[in-house]
Amino acid sequence: MSGSRITFLQGQAAQGAALARIAARVRSRLDSPQLAALHTARRPLFTGIGASYAALAVPVQQLREAGIVTQRVLSSEIETGTAGFDTDCLIAVSQGGRSSETLAAFQCAAPGITKTALLNVVPSPLGDLADLVVDLGNESDSYASTIGYTGTLVALDLIAGALAGRQGDPWDRIAEQTTAVHRQAAEVVAGLRVRGARCIASDGVAAGASRASAEEGALLLREVVRMTAAASATRNYLHGEMESAGNTLHLVYGDGREIELARSLAAAGHLTLLITAVDVEVAENLFVVRLPQVADAVRVVLETVVLQELVAQLSEERGVPIESFVFANDDTKEGGLDMSDFEVSAYSPAAAG
Asked: What's the pLDDT tens digit per position in 315-330?
């Protein structure tokens, strides 16, 4: 199997089991002698484009907290080389391994830098350029990514753990956690979907690792629901960005200043969904999905589960087919667009394994 397409709803249903498989696979790969060089990297630079770039907020936050110098950069910013970056390991993320900007970043990387590719689909053009490859196992995925994106988050956490010398990981219960949060999200979103579908735009607000969720949420709302959406860091949002609120859906992720922010927005009459691990009471205009207390990377996966349910229900309410797309940019993938990128295969849980 080579990363065959399934529907968005099938991806949601199969996600928990797939993430458990991915965690087991990536653990095994990282323990193999072939990836020994990855463990010795001291100044990793992460790169990607689109959803892959959003996911990189997770390992960057983790590694900085561990005292490791790192950053994320859009692949398009290093298409001409890595000379301006102090790095010994370039870690590029591309689920299909065909993103033209990410391929260019590898092709122009300075000599002596270990090039590591994190992929779902193997073999791939990006994998062919890499010194080291970590793959998710050719998991079936939807066009607007479900399993591919959350699986990438799992793998990035495990890579960050390997770089930081962490013992153990937080993924043993991910299948049941995913199922429980999906169930709760379906109930909460059902209560806001009619009003949410009438909103003209959406703001996602988060700090730390959860910035990945704010950015991925904006992307999903744009490509699935066709809703104008933006992502902001919490403190930056407070410095003026929130003043444009009006017939806007606000997605707020966090347990700190985000709670007061969500309450303020709701009190001003704005539809707000707060995704938090704190016990916050619902109120007029304020909907709450309560997450378990988990490690940051697991939390981001569970936030994404909520997002996926939100866009699934809003797209249905708006009458926008999830699998449809408007623009076909033929310069974003190696070899141009292949219509198989958009074809959905027959699906069964066994086939996803």
From this structure: 999 999 998 776 655 5
